[in-house]
TrEMBL record:
One of its GO terms (cellular component) is cytosol. It catalyses: L-aspartate + 2-oxoglutarate = oxaloacetate + L-glutamate. Keywords: Aminotransferase, Pyridoxal phosphate, Transferase. This is Aspartate aminotransferase.
Length: 408
């Protein structure tokens, strides 16, 4: 029947991108979507990605055949190594199953689908606990596969930092064996990460309740500029003996947004039959993958694999990562500095305390709307700004605009 399909609202983030593109003002500033921009507000193709692209294009053997169901092995194995480290006991003990996915979104989805089918206690699905707030897409990805969702406190409104006590209390109160979604680094949308000590506390509560960690990592190396540091939480949880899963995106840290290069990893807990468990999990993931996408797209994975498997290119990639994270840190300092110089009411230290692509400014929905209507500055209505949208030419304009809306 015609009424069976109601009109759905437009995706807020992609709607924002469309509105920005349609705006003809020469002052317009895009602080919406989480995609890196250079100091000229232009997309940045990483120099190392250009090199890898050239190597691939000059390869006379290159073809467009299907990948295996689990993806490009030189990509998935290095993707796992990047997260787990070179001397990972989990890898040595064959406790890791990796499947190439349609970027991070596809990895979260594959994990959600897998858990919806197999992670049942007494026949019932477990609830997935998401941070409040979280990346908007998390809600619908888990809901779409029929997993119930709930939230745990995360952002502390007054300090604009982590509500560690609220978070730990909620994790302790959640039913045993709940699924807990954790952002490995550079939390989206808040830019607030637990300290190493706070990660230990979180792991302790989760262990006591036998919770199941579901890591989402989209900013390794992009957050701090240090690949190992940004994988610290994941490595710690694995060392603590958790069975867990990881959704990994290469969109941001390789600038491969539209190429959709990502990976899903299952890591089993240390046990005599752990390698068997992992093999069985891999076999089920292959069935899910085949029925959904058959096999993953090849080009982005080839680019990443070319870089990850070559020592010189890998070093250059790390340099490129430091360029991106370094420029973002400079912009954090500049925005905070300008706001403090202007004496804008409120405190602004959170802008430099937060990390990664985003800052959760604390601006209200009304202030965000005013920034858009009066100043042509675009950000999501929760007050999140994509730091990469700032540059030396517009940071003062943005600071003055924020100052103006905060005072009205
Ligand atoms: C964002 O949050 O802006 C990015 O992760 C892009 C997306 O897909 O939502």
């Amino acid at each position: 029947p015609p009424e069976a399909v109601p009109q759905a609202p437009e995706d807020p983030l992609f709607g924002l991108m469309r509105a920005y593109k349609a705006d003809t003002s020469s002052n317009k500033v895009d602080l919406g979507i989480g995609a890196y921009r250079d100091n000229n507000a232009k997309p940045w193709v990483l120099p190392v990605v250009k090199k890898a692209d050239e190597i691939l294009r000059n390869d006379p053997e290159l073809n467009h055949e299907y990948l295996p169901i689990a993806g490009l092995a030189p990509f998935t194995s290095k993707a796992a190594e990047l997260l787990l480290g070179q001397s990972s006991a989990a890898s040595a003990e064959k406790r890791v199953a990796s499947v190439q996915t349609i970027s991070g979104t596809g990895a979260v989805h594959l994990g959600a689908l897998f858990l919806a089918k197999f992670y049942k206690v007494n026949g019932a699905n477990r609830t997935v606990y998401l941070s409040n707030p979280t990346w908007a897409n998390h809600n619908q990805i888990f809901t779409n596969v029929g997993l119930p969702i709930a939230t745990y406190p995360y952002f502390h409104k007054e300090t604009k930092g982590l509500d560690i006590e609220g978070m730990k209390r909620a994790l302790a109160d959640a039913p045993e064996r709940s699924i807990i979604l954790l952002h490995a680094c550079a939390h989206n949308p808040t830019g607030v990460d637990p300290s190493p000590e706070q990660w230990r506390e979180i792991a302790e509560v989760m262990k006591a309740k036998q919770h199941f960690p579901f890591f989402d990592t989209a900013y390794q190396g992009f957050a701090s500029g240090d690949l190992d540091r940004d994988a610290g939480a994941i490595r710690y949880f694995i060392e603590q003996g958790f069975e867990l899963v990881i959704a990994q995106s290469f969109a941001k840290n390789f600038g491969l947004y539209g190429e959709r290069a990502g990976c899903f990893h299952f890591v089993s807990a240390p046990a005599p039959d752990a390698a068997d468990v992992t093999t069985r999990v891999a076999s089920q993931l292959a069935i899910l993958q085949r029925s959904e996408i058959s096999n993953p797209p090849i080009y982005g994975a080839r680019i990443a694999a070319t870089v990850l498997n070559d020592a010189a290119l890998f070093a250059e990639w790390q340099e490129n990562l430091r360029t991106m994270s370094g420029r973002i840190i400079t912009m954090r300092e500049a925005l905070r500095g300008k706001l403090e110089e202007l004496g804008t009411p409120g405190t602004w230290n959170h802008i430099t305390d937060q990390i990664g692509m985003f800052s959760f400014t604390g601006l209200t929905e009304a202030q965000v709307a005013k920034l858009r209507s009066d100043f042509h500055i675009y950000m999501t209505k929760n007050g999140r700004i994509s730091m990469a949208g700032l540059n030396t030419s517009n940071v003062e304009y943005v600071a003055k605009a924020i100052d103006s809306v905060v005072r009205t």
